[in-house]
Amino acid sequence: TTTTSTTTQTTRMTTTVPIEWVTGTWTTGYWDCCKPSCSWAGKGNVKNPVQSCDAETGEVLHDLNEPSVCTGGRAATCKNNKPFKASETLSMGFAAAAVSGGHGLTGDANCGQCFELRFTDQVHKDGGGWPWGGADPSVVGKRMVVQVTNIGYDVSGDH
């Protein structure tokens, strides 16, 4: 698993909820290859769950009950679930949502939702006063729209 830290502002992209910025949140990057938790049936208010792919062939799996490669099954994250550049100031991608923080995310219902991130240079201080975060200068002022494809029940804080 690879992890990085970036400071962002986040807004939920939907027409049914008023747009409210959550400031002072941060993001981390990861890639663990496990089946996305939003690939199971009944996750989110979506027509179809997130696709998972065969860990050996890379082909899309159609059996929603195929176990994750991380528990001995064949289902893994599809290799096309990587971020991509839409323009000079906008990227698109996929994200895991931490649902144990106090930011309004509730869990499986967040599968399929989209959020806009705005990268800032703001540095956060943790509970001990240690500074961390702040986006790399090359992305400050840029935006990224992400779709929730994974839920992190074990992640705490305002991610």
Q: How does this structure look, described?
A:
With 159 residues, this protein is mainly beta. Mean pLDDT is 81; it is low at 1-18. The protein has no helices and ten strands. The protein has strands at residues 5-13, 22-28, 53-54, 75-76, 84-85, 90-98, 114-119, 124-125, 131-132, 143-152. The chain is globular and about 45 Å long. The chain has a six-stranded mixed sheet with strand order 2-1-7-10-6-5, with no helix packed on it. Strand 1 (5-13) and strand 2 form a beta hairpin.
Give the helix/strand class: mainly beta
Overall radius of gyration = 16 Å
The outline comes out as: globular
* Low-confidence residue ranges: 1-18
Q: Can you give the helix content as a percent range?
A: under 10%
Specify the biggest β-sheet. Answer: 6 strands, mixed
Give a quick set of tags describing it.
globular, single chain, disordered N terminus, about 0% helix, mainly beta, about 160 residues, six-stranded mixed β-sheet, two-stranded antiparallel sheet
List the helices and strands and how they pair.
Elements: E1 5-13, E2 22-28, E3 53-54, E4 75-76, E5 84-85, E6 90-98, E7 114-119, E8 124-125, E9 131-132, E10 143-152
Parallel strand pairs: 6-10
Antiparallel strand pairs: 1-2, 1-7, 3-4, 5-6, 7-10, 8-9
